[in-house]
Backbone:
């Protein structure tokens, strides 16, 4: 599974939504992505990519796209083209 | 209009030039302005009557609430996010004269006319002919859970609010230097008690609907030098996850916790963190039926008495009774917790006619919580008599869930679990998803909290009562 597929799957499973809903998805944009859902999402991503988010990045993770940008940063080094 | 000059909860004039409210957009209101704005809102209502107030942590919401309470208008506090159908049902049951709601939501109610606007809120006149008589002591209506749509309100009196407000101010030692930031909904008794108490001492409330998981919340907290916040157990789990320990928050002096029992591990972690950083961590105990608070653990005992909800608040009395109704006087014996005090509310309302009801409890509340006390007199909650869970701080009645499932699907099902984790047991795989979706839709809580387990049959005793204890073996861990 590619990193992008892994990332997408965590979103679709955590929020119980389809792949088509991911683009443009924002925090509080759907009922499931509230603070509770956010914590579950963060924990699943940390597990799947074996990383530990910095607090600033947890609270900056405001959309599906923003999350990709954060994970691509040096300290996490997730390559979404791989 | 009735005047409550002698029993007013807040004396806004006393703090005239102090800032009272500040929101995340930088809008602010002094106590003098709060008095003028809130009196105008009550004036627009013009009589003692019932008003549905759709709450947010925003200036307009607080202005309406303060004006209504201080001028004898009775608000029923509901969430601004309340489901439309549920609201329509409540309107039918209680027939309020007005609705006070955020401007942007007004267009949903085109059949009602706007009679007043202020601070981003509007007053809608419902025009209902039916008006239920209001008991003269009735100040406020609050929901206990609110989520499953039951029209049950807790009735609170002016005396209740005043007594609990004074007691909380005394044990938390609140004064006008405080700057609490909102972390809980205003229509939730714990969130409301923070507003009630701080306005009574002339402090400044920092209002935001942003959550702990948003950058904007933390910027607001830091820039405005918030001195305190409150949280339910789930709030503290989030703070733990956010590695709150590493944040530099020199102005934050007090963290309070209520709305369910924190794990002893987290209790200890936060108590120690507070001790190390010169902050206060205060665990508290309460219920909407007792206005808000009944017990608190003085911060100097936070580490030593971890897992305890503390001692009774000033002016109250705790006792424990055994199954025969006799008082337990020895430590370490579990019994049902009973509270007595002026903040015990008179009772519930389940329909419009109940709004005329008087005191049904006479200052004595049988809490439904099972507790024990240690040799030093500190109380520990050990379980519940009634079948409900607290999920993210909201009360969810399990018998009601069972009933709702039965009505909707006509199948055998049982709900059980521990706080923040509900398990729904069904006997047919094909019902698993629909039942789960249904319960999520009804409670409006995050799906993460709900798990369906398919079992061969729901365990029951000879008389047909569900044996919920036998279901505990299916829980995770």
Residues:
């Amino acid at each position: 599974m590619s990193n992008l597929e892994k990332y997408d799957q965590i979103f679709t499973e955590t929020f119980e939504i389809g792949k088509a809903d991911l683009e443009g998805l924002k925090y509080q944009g759907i009922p499931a992505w509230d603070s509770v859902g956010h914590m579950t999402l963060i924990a699943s991503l940390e597990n799947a990519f074996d990383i530990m988010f910095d607090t600033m990045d947890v609270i900056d993770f405001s959309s599906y796209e923003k999350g990709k940008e954060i994970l691509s940063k040096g300290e996490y080094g997730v390559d979404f083209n791989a | 209009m009735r005047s409550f000059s002698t029993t007013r909860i807040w004396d806004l004039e006393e703090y005239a030039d102090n800032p009272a409210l500040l929101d995340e957009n930088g809008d602010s209101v002094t106590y003098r302005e709060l008095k003028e704005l809130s009196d105008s809102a009550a004036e627009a209502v013009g009589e003692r009557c019932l008003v549905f107030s759709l709450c947010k942590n925003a200036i307009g919401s607080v202005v309406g609430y303060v004006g209504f309470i201080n001028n004898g208008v009775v608000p029923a506090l509901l969430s601004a996010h309340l489901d439309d159908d549920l609201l329509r049902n409540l309107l039918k049951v209680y027939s309020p004269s007005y609705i006070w709601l955020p401007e942007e939501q007004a267009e949903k109610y085109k059949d009602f006319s706007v009679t007043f606007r202020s601070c981003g809120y509007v007053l809608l006149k419902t025009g209902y002919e039916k008006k239920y008589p209001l008991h003269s002591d009735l100040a406020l209506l609050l929901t206990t859970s609110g989520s499953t749509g039951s029209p049950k309100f807790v009735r609170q009196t002016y005396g209740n609010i005043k007594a609990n407000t004074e007691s909380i101010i005394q044990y938390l030692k609140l004064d006008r230097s405080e700057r609490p930031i909102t972390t809980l909904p205003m229509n939730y008794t714990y969130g409301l008690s923070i507003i009630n108490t701080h306005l009574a001492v002339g402090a400044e409330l920092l209002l935001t609907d942003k959550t702990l998981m948003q950058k904007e919340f933390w910027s607001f907290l830091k820039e405005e030098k918030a001195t305190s916040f409150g949280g339910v157990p789930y709030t503290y789990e989030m703070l733990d996850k956010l590695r709150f320990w590493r944040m530099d928050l020199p102005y934050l002096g007090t963290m309070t916790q209520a709305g369910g029992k924190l794990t002893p591990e987290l209790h200890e972690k936060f108590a120690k963190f507070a001790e190390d950083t010169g902050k206060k961590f205060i665990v508290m105990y309460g219920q909407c039926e007792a206005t808000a608070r009944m017990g608190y653990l003085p911060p100097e005992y936070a580490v030593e008495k971890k897992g305890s909800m503390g001692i009774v608040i000033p002016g109250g009395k705790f006792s424990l009774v055994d199954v025969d109704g006799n008082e337990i006087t020895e430590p370490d014996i579990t019994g049902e917790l009973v509270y007595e005090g002026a903040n015990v509310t008179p009772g519930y309302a389940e329909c419009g006619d109940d709004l005329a009801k008087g005191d049904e409890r006479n200052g004595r509340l049988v809490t439904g919580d099972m507790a024990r006390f240690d040799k030093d007199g500190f109380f520990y909650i050990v379980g519940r008599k009634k079948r409900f869970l607290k999920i993210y701080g909201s009360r969810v009645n399990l018998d009601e869930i069972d009933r709702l499932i039965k009505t909707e699907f006509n199948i055998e099902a049982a709900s059980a679990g521990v706080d923040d984790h509900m398990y729904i047991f069904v006997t047919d795989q094909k019902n698993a998803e629909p039942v789960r979706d249904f319960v999520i839709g009804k409670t409006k809580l995050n799906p993460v909290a709900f798990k369906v387990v398919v079992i061969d049959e729901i365990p029951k005793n000879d008389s047909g009562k569900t044996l919920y204890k036998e279901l505990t073996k299916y829980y995770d861990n």
